[in-house]
Amino acid sequence: MDDFNVNNTALKKIRFATNYFFDTGIYFPKFSIITFYWNLVPITHPEMRIALYVLLGITSSFALATFLGDTFWCGADPSVNWAEGDDNCQTFTSMTLMRINWGMNFTSEVLNVLYPIPLVRSLIMTSKRKKAGVALIFGLGIITIIVSIGRFITTTFASNDISICASLALKTSRQQV
């Protein structure tokens, strides 16, 4: 493992499974935010309700596309991902799939942050504390977008491969034994 290649079938299966935890799992907080918006938007704003349906549809389709992409990127048989040999297709190391998934994630993230802006504009807040709270919430959304951009830059220009970390962990565990 000194050359940072992973030849262990069990480890390849784990790497394949991590795609679901991260790539698809990243949509669960988005659905949580959409559920919050659902309770926040009054029925008296039909345009915002329609926009919320659109946001839910886009986010759901991106989550489904991510799940299917992670499963079938290398073909109809997902076991290709952990087959013997280094030249086999692997979803985990596909930079093209990473860019597609990131694009969908980033788009849904930005839409989630932009969605409530018309509602916030219509709010009448006399308290500076309430204004600060709303600014803080939007700030958290913007921080999430910045972190997403940073992750994309890092994985694009550094590596999309955790085998470096796995190799260091293995070396450390060997030293302790």
SSE diagram, text form:
Layout: H1 9-24, H2 28-40, H3 46-72, H4 95-114, H5 117-122, H6 128-157, H7 163-176
Helix pairs in contact: 1-3, 2-3, 3-4, 4-6
Summarize the structure.
With 177 residues, the chain is mainly alpha-helical. The protein has seven helices and no strands. Pfam families: Fung_rhodopsin (PF20684).
Question: What's the N-to-C terminus distance?
Answer: 17 Å
Q: Beta-strand percentage? A: under 5%
Biggest pleated sheet: none
- Low-confidence blocks of residues: 173-177
Structural class: mainly alpha
Number of domains: 1
Percentage of helical residues?
A: over 70%
- Compute the gyration radius: what is it? 21 Å
The helix tally amounts to 7
Query: What is the global morphology?
Result: elongated
SSE order in H/E notation? HHHHHHH
* Total beta strand runs: 0
- Mean of all residue-level pLDDT scores: 82
Subcellular location: Membrane
Pfam family, one: Fung_rhodopsin
GO cellular component, one term: membrane
Keywords: Membrane, Transmembrane, Transmembrane helix
Could you please describe the fold and organization of this structure?
It is found in: Membrane. The protein has about 180 residues and is mainly α. It has one domain (about 10-175). It contains 7 helices and no strands. Helix 2 packs antiparallel against helix 3 (about 45-70) and helix 3 (about 45-70) runs antiparallel to helix 4 (about 95-115). The longest helix is centred in the C-terminal third of the chain and has 30 residues, at about 130-155. The two termini are about 15 Å apart.
